[in-house]
Amino acid sequence: MDKFLVRGGRPLRGKIEISGAKNSALPCLAAALLSAETVTLHNVPYVKDLITQRRLLEDLGATVLTPELRTHKITASHVQIFEAPYELVKTMRASVLALGPLLGRFGQAKVSLPGGCAIGTRPIDLHLKAFEQLGAVVSLESGDVVARAPKGRLTCADIAFDMVTVTGTENVMMAAALAAGRTVIKNAAREPEIEDLAELLNKMGARINGAGTDTIEIDGVEALGGAEHTIIPDRIETGTFLAAAAVTGGELEIRSCRPEHLAAVIEKMRETGVEIEELNPNTLLARRGEKGLKARDVTTEPHPKFPTDMQAQFMTLMTQAEGASTIVETIFENRFMHAAELHRMGADIHIHGSTAVVKGRTRLTGAKVIASDLRASASLVLAALCAEGETLIDRVYHIDRGYETIVRKLRSVGADIERISSTAADAAGAGDAA
């Protein structure tokens, strides 16, 4: 199991290219199952979750070619297996996105209950209830979700989610694209990734309106065709590097991004004293202001409010701000696990249920820490970059799931970070003990 060894205290300076959005590429790959024709996707990030999703498509019988880096050509004309096995699903919750397209196109699907980050429960029951409203018969059998359309094709429905669910909205949108009649999704997720998926589906011949609002209308069609589509930039990676510039006291030019996709993050960071300049529609320049960072409160909420996927990085930022900040997590009930690891590095953080109080400005020092999930990994890397001394971050496979070549990108702007094997890490630990 690889680890990151980080020697902190170096301001980051230079240019960073943002990769394609993992959370957009995953449903877009799944959407290729809806057609027998080839779907070509560009700007697909080379991260572990996308490798897993590709394996899943190939296991189902699809052909996935990569004629050039970050381009996938998916042809699902010979899919004869309709089951996503536990061996793949256990490592990535987004595997559940195979349910919608399999059920929509083939009228049957079997997917193991999802795994992934240990950040709390996610209401897959909302997906299943929606599929039942579309006419599917759904059951749980030995840890698998089994769904069938008795008449071979789903039928339209008015679906109102009890709570906002991104993957639920995506799953239903894909299934309803081939259902008979008009389906209406109310209380739909509004994330940019939803809009990106809808754009791809419409290129394939779907008839979807309202993506990006809380009400989406889908007029089902008989069949979908091929399409070519470019994945949007990763807004969470963008936000992470904005925080990296601020916590290290450096200056980063962040390219190939979409500032409008993280307006709430940019606004909140500016409130804290981070200077963020929009050089052009796809480039941001970020630095810590001359007066330093100021504590500000934040509450995570569904898009377009402050995203839960930036909460951990913002917590690290607040350890370096003057004053006390309150962070309220409303999306996941178990997403403060990084706080204990930050505490090992010297942070002053107190957790009270869904609320964290961060007292800054604290001096962080290097330590051995363990990443508990994808975004927690990013927060620990940020802390290590501004800490004194060496930090050894374990379980970095989490960060590999969502950040493309993060070590290379950070090293290119001056970070002292390296990936080391477990054997080398153990030797480094023994040296520290000696």
Outline type: elongated
What is the count of helical runs?
15
- From the alpha carbons, calculate the radius of gyration and give it in angstroms: 22 Å
Total beta strands: 24
Q: Kindly state the mean pLDDT as a whole number?
A: 92
Please give the share of residues in helix: 25-40%
Give the termini distance in whole angstroms.
23 Å
Largest sheet: 4 strands, mixed
Strand order, sheet with most strands: 22-23-1-24
What's the short version?
By secondary structure, the chain is of the alpha/beta class. It has helices spanning 22-31, 48-60, 86-89, 99-106, 124-133, 166-176, 192-203, 235-248, 263-272, 311-319, 337-344, 374-386, 397-400, 406-412, 422-433; strands at 3-7, 13-17, 38-42, 63-65, 72-75, 83-84, 108-112, 137-141, 144-148, 158-160, 182-186, 207-209, 215-219, 227-230, 251-255, 274-280, 283-288, 298-299, 323-328, 348-352, 355-360, 368-370, 390-394, 416-420.
Explain what you see.
With 434 residues, the chain is of the alpha/beta class. The protein is built from 15 helices and 24 strands. The strands form 6 sheets. The chain has a 4-stranded mixed beta sheet with strand order 22-23-1-24. The protein has a 4-stranded mixed beta sheet with strand order 2-15-17-16. A 4-stranded mixed beta sheet has the order 4-5-3-14, with helices on one face. The protein starts with a strand and ends with a helix. The model is unreliable at 116-121 and 425-434 (pLDDT under 50).
